[in-house]
Amino acid sequence: MPKLTVENVGTFDIPAGKRLISALIEDAGTDQLHACGGAAKCTTCRVEFIEGEPEKITLAEKELLKVREVSEPGVRLSCQIACEDDMNVRLISRLEGSGRKDQGGPVSSEIEPPPEWTMK
Question: Member of which family (predicted)?
Answer without folding.
Answer: Belongs to the adrenodoxin/putidaredoxin family.
